[in-house]
Write a structure and sequence with these properties.
The complex is a heterodimer. By secondary structure, chain A is α+β, with helices and mostly antiparallel strands. Chain A has 4 helices and 8 strands, in the order αββββαββββαα. Chain A is globular. Chain A starts with a helix and ends with a helix. Chain B is globular, with a radius of gyration of 17 Å. The chains are: A alpha+beta, B alpha+beta.
Amino acid sequence: MSVQNSRATLAARRGELLAELFLEELDPVFISRPPIKDVGYDLLVGFSNDKAGVNTFSVEVKSTEEPPSELRFPIPRSVFNRIAHSNVPGLLLVADVKRNQLYYAWLTSGGSNGGGHTVSIPVVEISETTKKKLKNQLRKANGVEAAGAIG
Amino acid sequence: MATGWLQDVTGFRGEKIVELCLTDYAAFSRPLFRPAFLGDKWPAVDFYVELNGVPGRRLYFLIQSKGTTSDLTAQVTSLRISSTRNDVARLLQIPGPTYILGVHERSRRVFARSVHTGVALKAITRIRLTHELTTVNLQRLYDEVCDFWRSTGHKPNNSVFA
C-alpha cells in the first residue's frame, strides 16, 4: 500500500468514525452500512418521528483534510445524481478529519446547477445549534418533505 | 446470505472514540498511531497499536479501553472507571507496554493509565485527569513507548526453526 493510499484510507476511516459517532448522538432507531460498496450510499439511518413512524435517510460521508472552501464541497455529479434522484432523502456529511469538524447538506434535485463533472454543494458547519436543527429535521413527521424543503 | 445484509454500526462507541483519539493529528503532520481493534472477544486487550514514523521498526503497545458515563465535574480530579483485578493481572502478564484507557463517552475525552511492572495487582478504578490524551500527552505516550522498545531486544537472536 502506498503512503498516499494509506493516508486516504486513514482519512476515510476517521470520516466514517466521526460520522457514526455524530449520528449516534442524534438518537437514531438504527444506523446500518450496506454490505457492498456500490449500493450508492455509505450509511442508512432511521429516526423515529412523532407519528410513530420511522424516517429513513441515506448518508454519504466524504472526508477532507481542509475546511470546505467558502462552505461549499464538490462531489462527483454521478454521486449527486444517484442520491438526489433517489426515493430516499440523502444527507451529505463532510468530515474535516484533521480538525474533527463535520458539515452537512441535504442532497436534493434542486441543489444542482451547471453541467460539469462535479457539483458544488453548500454545506452547514455542525455546531450545537445546527445539530439541534438537523435533529429536528430528521424527526419531522414526514422526513422526506423535511429534507426536500432544505434544498 | 449473510453478505447481503445491512450491517448494524451502532455500539462500540468507546472504541470508536479511542480510535479517533489515537489517530488525531490536528497538531501533527500525520497520526502518531495506527490502532487495530481486536474485537470484543479477545481477552484483556482491545487494541493493538503501532507507532507510525519509526524508521525500520513497527513498535507497538496494547490497550484495554473502559467506557464510562460518570460525571466529569470541575471538582473531580480523576475519571472513575471499572476495571477488575483480573484485567490488571492479564495486562501485567503481557510483555510490552500496556495501558488502560478510560473513555468519557459523553465528552469524547480519553485518559490513560499505564499497567507496568510495579503496578499493584488490584483493580484500577480511577485515572487522573492530568493523564488525558491531549496533543501533548499523545506525544508523551509515543515517546514513552519508543523509549521502552529502545531499551529491550527487538527480536529473538536465534530459533530452533531457523
